[in-house]
Structure formats: C-alpha cells, structure tokens
Amino acid sequence: MAADEVSMQCLLRRDYDAATLVCDHPPRLRHPHKRLVFELCGGAATRGAIAVTRWAAAALPAAAVLAPTETVAMSGTYDYAGDDRGVWHVNFADPQLFVAYGSALLAQDELQAAEHPVLGAIREALLAEGQLAQTEDATGCTPVLVAGAERRCTIETAPAREPGREYGLYGNRFAAAPADVIRRAIRVHPQPGRSNLVAIAAPVGSGRYTRVQIEQILVTAYTGFAAAVGETARLWPSTAAEIRTGFWGCGAFGGNREIMVILQLLAARLAGTVRLRFYAFDDAGRARFTAGAAALDRVLREPGEPLGEVLGRITDLGYEWGMSDGN
Questions:
Q1: Residue 80 belongs to what domain range?
Q2: Considering the domain boundaries, does residue 78 fall inside one?
Q3: What string of DSSP letters covers 239-285?
Q4: 141, 135 in Cβ contact below 8 A?
C-alpha cells in the first residue's frame, strides 16, 4: 500500500504558539535538576509554532508492498543534525505522554523533554483541556506527533573523566549527581534548532515473542511512521520523510534488539518512509542492527505477498525478551 493510500484517523490536532503555551501551561518540574536545566536553557523563552497530533491505530495492509526505504546505521545517539523539515525522531514514550518529564529520571523520553522544554507544557495543556495525553488507550496505540519543538540545549549524558560523571548521567544517575556536575554537562544552544517527534509507547513482555505481540509492535511503529509521512506531506510538501530511531523499548523494558530492528524497518517500508536512520550506539549495536536487517531480508519472499505470512515467519524466528537495564 502506498503511503498516500494509508487510511489514518487523526484523533486530535492542536496548533500552538510555543511562547504562549509555556506561559499559560508552565512545565511542572518536581526535581531540582530538571528546574536547573529549564532555567539554564532559557526554557521560558521557547518560541515558534508547534503542531501536535494524536492518531488512532492504523490497520496493517493485507499485502507486504514495501517502499525501497534507504536505511543507515549510525553510531552514537541522536545528534539532531541537519534540516528538520520532514525529519522525525522517535520518542520512546510511556503510555502517558511525557509523564515523567519533571521527575528525577533521565531516560530517553525524559532527556528529550528536558532538551525540548515545550514538551512538558504540551502535556499540561492537553490535561488542562481534558484531553487524553496518552500514546495508548483502550483501543490500542495512539501515537502522538509533535512538530516544531525548539531544542534549547544538549545534556551530555555519556561517561566523562570528571568526578560524578564516571558512569554518565543517563537514567537514574542523573538525579544522583551533584548540581554542579549537572550544570557543567549542559550545553546551551544560542540559536536553538527545531525537532519533530513521534511519541510511541514501547512494548513490554517476557519469554518468547508471540504473534500477537509482534503484530502489536508493528502496528504501533507503522501507525507512528505513516502519520509522520502524512504530516510531512502536509507541513513540507515535496519533502521526503525521514525517520530517526534506535533500540526502542530495549533498555528498561528488555526488548530484543534484533526483532525491534526487524519490525521498525518493516514498518518504515510499509509506511512509505524514504529514509530511516538507526542510531545503534556502538559497534555491538551496529552488529545487532545488521543482524536484524539481514533477518528481515530472509523472511521476505515475494513482492506483495500476504503480510500475515511474513509475520508468521518472524514469529518462527523465536526471539526472546531480555532483561531490563535498570534505567
């Protein structure tokens, strides 16, 4: 199914002025380190137009008609480099949108919210309006897209040769570090760039991946990516859609890296994504990306074959859930 033929249902669409949004619905920052980041990066000075949409789970196509998506494995983590038009970064979301943005935690979701301070204000505005600030509901996944968020700083979370940063600042280590260490780890952007985000809730499970779990994961990624393709066409006509992602759900939830590569690559191709950049951290991560991409190639047989048969062969690969990394 071509991207322009995907049947998508938009559950909510809001256009905001970022300065007004942050003023009227200021982020509620419960942890002092989060308040420090907000103050240093000038979060109250956030500017620009923000487009927020929430989408109902899309039906998977019956046939595996796949776009020739260009895929690249990148080292490290998101650098947000280049033109933002049509470029979407996956937010490894909680079912409650940006729910822990003001907490002590600094996992991937909370890191994006700290560097893009308007995200906390979006959550507060939706709640004040009585909307479901959620990426899932009783019907299934409901991805949320945010276009135009200013990225006002970079928080250096990698380990460094400095007391208090020997093991980095990611996850629970952020709250444990002294304030002066946090202060030195923040790089303020005098001219903030803009980011577009696809917030999709990471799956949770244990044991062997079931067919139902695999299909649910694919539906979530496919819905988010297809929405990004559609919003790219609306906001930036004639611009190619690019997804930037990584090992979604493979940290705190113990997801299997290879199958999450398989399902995200498959979702991107089903959705008609032109490019996908996969941030794999290091050589070990790049090896898992390569293995997952090769496994997807093996389970694909004939162009346009029934997608159900492809999902059956993925299930038969017998992937197992791993353990949480504690973040």
A1: 3-316
A2: yes
A3: PPPEEEE--TTSSTT---HHHHHHHHHHHHHHHT-SEEEEE-BSHHH
A4: yes
Query: What tens digit of pLDDT does each residue of 86-118 get?
Result: 999 999 999 999 999 999 999 999 999 999 999
CATH number for the domain harbouring residue 178: 3.40.220.10
User: Cα dist. 297→3, 262, 292, 294, 316 in Å?
Assistant: 21, 9, 9, 5, 15
- E strand map for the chain: 10-17, 49-55, 70-74, 87-93, 136-137, 140-141, 144-155, 186-201, 242-245, 275-279
321 within some domain: no
d(C-alpha 281, C-alpha 251), whole Å: 12
> Would residue 326 count as lying in a domain?
no
- Domains: count for the chain: 1
Cα 28 to the center of its chain, rounded Å: 22
Residue 157, token pair as written in the block: 């979370």
Phi then psi dihedrals of residue 77, to 5 deg: -120, 180
Identify the CA nearest to 134 among candidates 178, 166, 93. Answer: 93
Exposed, middle or buried: residue 161 (CB in 10 Å: 0-12, 13-18, 19+)?
exposed
Is the overall model pTM greater than 0.90, yes or no? yes
Rounded CA separation 183/164 (Å)? 12
Total count of residues recorded for the chain = 327
Say if 267 falls within a structural domain: yes
Average pLDDT score over the chain: 95
Q: Report whether 278 contacts 261 (CB < 8 A).
A: yes
